[in-house]
Amino acid sequence: MSISETAFAYHEPTISTILNLAGFLLVLNLVNMCLDKLVYCGLLGQLFIGILWGTPGAKWLTRDMETVMQQLGYLGLIMLVYEGGISTSLPSLKANILLSLAVATTGIGVSMGLSFILTELVAATPLQAFSAGAALSATSLGTTFTILSTTNLIKTRLGTVTTGAAMLDDVVGLVLVQVITNLGGSGESFRAMTVIRPVCVSIGFGTGVWLLCRWGIQPVLQAIRAHEQRFPAFTGTIQFYFLVYTFLLVGMVAGATYADASSLFAAYIAGVVTSWIDGFSKGNSTTADTGTMSTELSTQHTYQEEGSNPQEKDFIRNNQTIVQQTASEKHKTPPTGSLVYEKYYHEPVTRILVPFFFASIGFAIPITEMFHGKIVWRGVVYALLMVAGKLVTGLWLVRFSSRPFSSVVRILRKPFSNVVLFCARLETGSQKRQKETPETQLQQQQNEKEEKTSKIQNQLQEKQTSSQPDKQDQEQEHEAATNSEPPTQQPRQATPNSQPTSTLPPKPKSLYPASILGLAMVSRGEVGYLIASLAESKGMFGASSRGDSSETYMVIVWAISLCTLFGPICVGTLVKRVKSLQRMRVDRGGEDPLGVWGI
């Protein structure tokens, strides 16, 4: 007898299912809280819990449960990226966009180049090495945003550069997904449009949003703020802004996805647009508030000067306070996007959706097939190369000393400067000789003779006085020598002044910003697993003799997993050290260890 499909029948879940899901959520949050307190990397605990609970481990979750958690986890990833966009400082993003582009390009290029060592390490083909480099060139957005949010660095200049570079890595990674999908097709030829379209759509999407905000949304917001009194009262409530910002996020993500662009890139752009709207509304409300208050108070001040009755003056003073209160109520700042996110989204995203996302990454790690001798050491070697491929991005924040270059320039310029001085002396001497007359020459000769005779007389007098020394002067010199301080202190005081001052720029006082940037870019995460799994499903890595996953795929999974583990642990340890140094600087005084990158 067939079951009717007009409705889904409700069945009470068993107690084992309830305990399983409740324990899974509880353990995810407890592990996250404990590891965040220790090393700021609770996401690693959630990843290991996913391995334990899911298919790679004890298989306590059914395949349907894992599918639902994976989908909900991706929704949490979108919200996490949206939060990163809201927290982005637009002035800092504009000032550091070129630096973010340089960091992203360096990480992608070095990782792709080092991946071709797989041709010698596992006898991979160039196409397989390219696919591996595509998987290892991307940076985990979810991991990056989680690390920066946990360490309170997301609003700093360092956080802006890191998130911008990670976003560009993600766009390139999703473009490479399309490339690998095309290359994996057996019967189809390579089409350039498959590669060009996602790139053009991403660039066009970002440019179009900027033009729309500049020439479309900004005039509309100005008109709304000018006539906000005509709108109903519910348009100023936080519930109304919750709907507006939610529709903005959903619309941009859906439009970008249907246009073959990255949904995560669209979520980040939606967060940036939300931050821009908040800043525009805040600035417009303050200018309007000060303008109305100044005009009304100036008119009342003139009336107060004209009025002669003291009762009228008291009435005007009281009216001024009423005007200030009414003006602030009229131009009250609307609820911001960060406030809406904090009230409606933050807790469910942090406690349910984001733990599901990192647990779903653990579902994708075939840990039972990874512990074979050849696979382990090859995976570790490849992981070390991929760590180095992202660590080099931190060099963009290192200020190198130009001492060797300046010394070479000084050596090369020295002979030319001597020639210039010699020529200048010749020119000045020739000019003086041309100006001199015979009379002046005779006077100079007489003066020189007189100077010579006076010098000879002075030398004779000095010899006579030195032959008859004064005894009293000798005794005074002896007493002064015994009572004076030791002469070793004078050269110590004179040595700092005697050393030549250097005009070179000072070296960086710490390498913490460069280290944090490089290590934050190390984590691969969801995009790396996506590209590697897609290439494996297309048969690009070949098949093993036992029918399991290919050795190339397992080496790539080792590298992705170790990078995803190594990056957050090191970043958390460094940030913990930086926090302790910052507390010491507050107590004892001194500069921030992050310098300008911590602002």
Give a verbal description of the structure.
This protein has 599 residues and is mainly alpha-helical. The chain has a domain of 410 residues: Up-down Bundle (Na+/H+ antiporter like fold), CATH 1.20.1530. 76% of the residues lie in helices and 0% in strands. It is built from 21 helices and no strands.
Main beta-sheet annotation:
none
The outline comes out as globular
Estimate what percentage of residues fall within beta strands.
under 5%
Identify the CATH architecture of the domain at 15-228 and 241-281 and 334-398 and 508-597: Up-down Bundle
- How much helix, percentage-wise, in residues? over 70%
CATH fold topology of the domain at 15-228 and 241-281 and 334-398 and 508-597: Na+/H+ antiporter like fold
Mean pLDDT: 77
Individual helix count:
21
- Backbone CA Rg: 37 Å
Number of strands: 0
CATH level-1 class of the domain at 15-228 and 241-281 and 334-398 and 508-597: Mainly Alpha
In whole angstroms, how far apart are the ends? Answer: 69 Å
- H/E topology pattern: HHHHHHHHHHHHHHHHHHHHH
Q: What structural class results from the helix and strand content?
A: mainly alpha
Q: Uncertain regions: pLDDT < 50 for 5+ in a row?
A: 323-330, 480-508
Keywords: Antiport, Ion transport, Membrane, Sodium, Sodium transport, Transmembrane, Transmembrane helix, Transport
GO molecular function: antiporter activity
Biased composition (Basic and acidic residues): 470-480
Membrane topology: Multi-pass membrane protein
